[in-house]
Amino acid sequence: MAFLFGEDYFRVQTKGGLSQAQTMTAYLGGSAFQTVMDNPVTAYRQLVQQYAKDLSGKIVDPKIASAEASASFKATPFSAATSGLMPRLIGVLFKRIPKFGILLGISFVVGDGEVGLVAATGASIMSAPFINPVRMVEKQQRAFFKETGAQKGVWPILLEAKAKNFAPLFRGTIPLMGHSLASAVLGLVGQPKLQKIIKKEVGTKTSLGNTATNLISSAVVSPIYVAVTNPLSRLEVIMQTSAINKSSINLGSAVKEFVADTKQFGMRGLFRGQGIGIFKAVISLSLFHEGRMFLGEQFKDRNEANGWVENNTVPPYLL
Question: Which CATH number fits domain 17-308: 2.30.130.60, 3.40.640.10, 1.50.40.10, 3.40.50.2300?
Fold first, then answer.
């Protein structure tokens, strides 16, 4: 991959019809669109998983956890639905630029720009230190709804973390790496490949277009994705929703809590949040790729209309 902000980074490629900069912009735009639209579902899923324990620390029935999550939303619907949104939007830059930058960068170095397994693995590991602090702040914002009925401010969270040299912001990094890898492999690599197959096999025989095939492929990938990531998501929630000014919950303790939940409530304990997770994954994946494809097509059409694809040139407005 050309040096970031170098001329080749902005040069329109003959294959694909986009420059690396335009591809990155399309990914970021799709991510921002998805973030705003799926935030209420994201917030609700965290509460369902977080309320696995009551205030005394006792594991409760999944039905009770779901009821308490619903009660939090009914009590303060706007605050609950928008909780964590600002860190997530800021995270589009702080999380997605490193992740997508590494992902697309590796794909251009080892291949022809096609996102593959090697790029997904590298991006998942190398971007985790950038992503984790944002996810920690996001979860902390809605971690105390049950006690306060309101989301916690970003500044107080950062001040608490500063008192401990910001170390709490990196709680849950190990499960995040696994979560991020599954997300990249299934969501960023698998879904687009599956969509191409569906579009080729089904789209040519029916009137299904990009949006319909995008939704179908997301619906196929999402149950697999959630089955793989739900346990990792649970570990993240356990490790990242404990109070910053108190002792942290390490990975071993989080695993023991997860195992205890499974022993007590069986498959219902194992798959807390699985149903809403599948719904969220279908919506999130579809929205992300819809936004990404829309922006990519706009860039491509403009490049072709101005002859920048054939000439393999840098658009004048980027010079």
Answer: 1.50.40.10
